[in-house]
Design brief:
Elements (H helix, E strand, L loop, with lengths): L2 H23 L3 H6 L1 E9 L4 E4 H15 E15 L6 E14 L4 E15 L2 E15 L8 H7 L15
Parallel strand pairs: 1-6
Antiparallel strand pairs: 1-2, 3-4, 4-5, 5-6
Length: 168
């Protein structure tokens, strides 16, 4: 593998990890499932969660969406190592920060690691497995609120003018 191909593969895998976070935050469960091989799996051992295959991944996403009032996930760069059996497999880690508030009022501030395996397919790099390891969990109630949460509570949202974005 030439350096150019290695760099291109690393960029593609970083984009895959970012796409996962975007699909999760946008509650686009079908798009998220498309980021996995047909037998792909997500495991969160600390929470007793495992979702296998497209149907399992979509169902997990819908379950999360139904339980969460607030879900913010940020992916930080991690490592990538290419397999010895050619250029079509890799493993890596992505570092994650999350803010979560469930509809029943529980709060979670997580810092964790996704331990990933990837496979190159005809459609590009895909996840074969993501295992989420929680490294830090803070269940102190979150002090802030989301615009959707403020609207539900009857509080005004961010200041806006007609047709413009919120002001800072």
């Amino acid at each position: 593998m030439t350096d150019f191909h290695t760099i291109a593969d690393r960029v593609a895998i970083d984009a895959l990890r970012a796409e996962f976070t975007d699909a999760a935050m946008m509650n686009d469960h079908e798009r998220l499932a498309d980021l996995f091989t047909p037998d792909g799996v997500v495991r969160i051992p600390d929470a007793g969660i495992e979702a296998v295959g497209r149907e399992g991944l979509v169902a997990l996403g819908r379950q999360r969406e139904g339980r969460m009032d607030l879900f913010v996930q940020t992916t930080h760069p991690g490592t990538v190592r290419f397999g010895e059996s050619g250029e079509d497999t890799a493993s890596g880690r992505a570092y994650i920060s999350e803010l979560i508030r469930t509809r029943d009022g529980q709060s979670h501030r997580n810092h964790g690691i996704y331990h990933d395996t990837y496979r190159r397919t005809a459609d590009g790099w895909k996840f074969t497995e993501r295992v989420y390891e929680i490294r830090y969990l803070d269940t102190t109630p979150l002090g802030g609120s989301s615009p959707a949460g403020r609207a539900q509570e009857g509080s005004p949202g961010p200041a806006t003018t007609s047709g413009s974005r919120p002001t800072a």
